[in-house]
Amino acid sequence: MHLETGVAVRIKICGITRPEDAEKALALGADTIGCVFHATSARHVTEAIAQDIQLAVGESGTLVGLFVDPTVDYVQAVLDRVELDVLQFHGEESPAFCEQFGRPYLKAVAMSAHVDLSAMSERYCSARGLLLDSAHGGQFGGTGHRFDWGWVDAGLGNTVMLAGGLNADNVGDAIRQVRPAAVDVSSGVEKDKGIKDSDRMRAFIEAALPEISEGGL
Which residues of 90-123 are buried (b: 16+ CB within 10 A; e: fewer)? Predict the structure, then answer.
């Protein structure tokens, strides 16, 4: 695992569909912007829209592209048009599949009480980290539901990005309990699917800041 860790937990705002939302998120203190390249998602973006978001991100943050069991050709087609810094895979992709694009990658894990995170960490040892998300109704992220944080193995927190039902009311507790390297929010900062709310983004980031200032990670 290669997630960067330090005194500050990193903040990712995912499901961005508008350049202005990316700009606002970064201005408020987020580190990372996520775009969804999965056609059935309400937050799906085309390569053209992603190019505009990429321009908005510029050198101010990291741009992540989310895929679910894509073809090699589709990932490459996106990469040919959009300069993604990191790839994020939410399906059944093998380590070999994830590694072939020459980009750092995150492997999402649909959490349950039966998931062996140590085994997943070993299998995807080439990943930048594991993104732990809720498994709800067959959806791939953005469900608004959290999982039991007690399922995260002690000692693995600083190699994971925590997602799933996070919002301004619970992100502080999440950071204190799990001690993740990063937190990832989508629906928890929206006024509509794919449309981010500036006040909710501000509240989420400010709720995480006390944990950062206390020495956090």
Answer: beebeeebbeebebbbbbbbbbeeebebeebbee
